[in-house]
Design a protein that fits this description.
Elements (H helix, E strand, L loop, with lengths): L1 E2 L6 H6 L6 E2 L12 H4 L29 H10 L2
Antiparallel strand pairs: 1-2
Length: about 80
Amino acid sequence: MVHEEKPIWPDETREGRVKYPWRVKLEPIKIGVADFKSLVPRLGFIERKERPNVYLVGTPTNLRRLIPEYDAREIIDALS
């Protein structure tokens, strides 16, 4: 994690100030597309299977809870 003073986000640029100074460099593990509907039955973090989209709303998603590693692995494995 590094602290930077250069605006990079649209709201920072618009306001002319750094609002989010802490940055983390990430490298993709795998890039692709996964079919969410087919994943829902296999994902443990989605408790209410009849309304799975609720778990994708907000920042961070999943109602501000971590996604378990086994669910992350299911998602990564499903990427094409």
